[in-house]
Amino acid sequence: MRGFRAILSKEFAHIRRDRSTIFFTFIVPALQLTIFGYAIETTIENIPLVVHDLDGSQDSRRLVEALEASRTFRVAQRVTSGEAWRHALAGGSAKAVVIIPADYAARLLRAEQAHVQFLIDGSDSQVATTAMNAANLIVGQLALGRARLVGESLQVGPARDEKGRVALPIEARPRMLFNPDLESSHFFVPGLIAIILQLVLVFLTSFSIVKEREHGTLEQLFVTPVGRLGLLFGKLVPYAVMAFGELLIVLVLMTTLFGVPINGSLWLLLALSSLFIVTALSLGLMISTIARTQLQAMQLSFLVMLPSVLLSGFMFPRQEMPLPLYLAGFVLPVTYFIEILRGVITRAAYATDLLSSIAGLVACCAVIFAVSVARFRKQLD
């Protein structure tokens, strides 16, 4: 143990001078526990619901009010055409649709069973299961209440089905779309592709540039005739090519190993994935302009990755998060890319269905790329 005290005091002095170590040791864990403790919420509520009421009667309004009162559903939109709710489902702005037929109230008055159809987005099996169970329960409770009133007043069967048998007045008919078997891989694997792409690209880019700075080779490049933009794009383009190859590999594994088909346009998927690759490379470049060592680059990369996993909707529904965390998710590029992947791969969405997500990803790409290039050129100067 000779020299222990000397080394101990030296190390404490080094830690005291290194503010980043203190920050990542004490401040970051406290912030992460506070933020993600609120973000991780497994109770599913406020599922966005589109109402297509073809009846418009007091009975149909009572049904919609019962769905809203349960707090499981939140009426996000009321439409008058089938095309409108198809667009909402494909674009991800709604997770369920209730279609009330035009003869809903008339069938109830004739003591015939009325059918209410629920179309549920099955791409997220957890949300879809909750929506299906809640729809059956709410409609069942409404039907029992009406059956009790009719039975007590007339002392007869409350309603009859198509074959003339006694039945409840209202029947819910849920139907799963996009993922009828509720396989979790159809939800998690597309999101995992986005997380893996960002993780690999951010680490590769930031580590590559910081390593050259540590070894002194970056300064040697500064005195060569290579231009600033030539140096920048010369560093990034090889990783962009590698990232595109990585994307093709994971897509092949997704379809063959996990059995998740690409239901939408492959060319649209590749084009939007290329946009995300540029964004992730720019994010890695920005980290490299802040970090001075590979350790700092790794710490900053993890500081970006954890919110990307928990706040982007990859694991937990974003609509269940507190409002500040829900809004914070819009700052993350991976939030938009996950929605794009699930839209194209699972829901066969078109570009017009994903305009909001595409616009958000373009905005993130432009801002991050401009900031990272500006900081990189300033360091070169």
Which descriptors apply to this entry?
381 residues; alpha/beta; abc type-2 transporter like fold; five-stranded mixed β-sheet; two-stranded antiparallel ribbon; 14 helices; 7 strands; elongated
Describe this structure in words.
There is one protein chain. This protein has 381 residues and is of the alpha/beta class. It has two domains: 4-41 and 183-375; 47-154, 3-Layer(aba) Sandwich (abc type-2 transporter like fold). The chain has 14 helices and seven strands. It has helices at residues 4-17, 19-39, 58-69, 82-91, 104-109, 125-154, 185-215, 217-222, 228-256, 266-290, 294-310, 323-328, 333-345, 355-380; strands spanning 47-53, 73-78, 96-100, 114-121, 159-160, 166-167, 170-177. A five-stranded mixed β-sheet has the order 2-1-3-4-7, with helices on both faces. A two-stranded antiparallel ribbon has the order 5-6. A hairpin with a 5-residue loop joins strand 5 and strand 6. Helix 10 (266-290) packs parallel to helix 14 (355-380). The longest helix has 31 residues, at 185-215. The radius of gyration is 27 Å and the shape is elongated.
Radius of gyration, whole Å: 27 Å
Which residues sit in consecutive blocks of at least 5 with pLDDT less than 50?
Answer: none
The class by helix and strand makeup works out as alpha/beta
N-to-C SSE series?
HHEHEHEHEHEEEHHHHHHHH
Spatially, the strands of the biggest sheet line up as: 2-1-3-4-7
Q: What is the end-to-end distance?
A: 49 Å
> How much beta, percentage-wise?
5-15%
**Can you count the beta strands?**
7
Mean pLDDT: 79
Residue share in helices? 55-70%
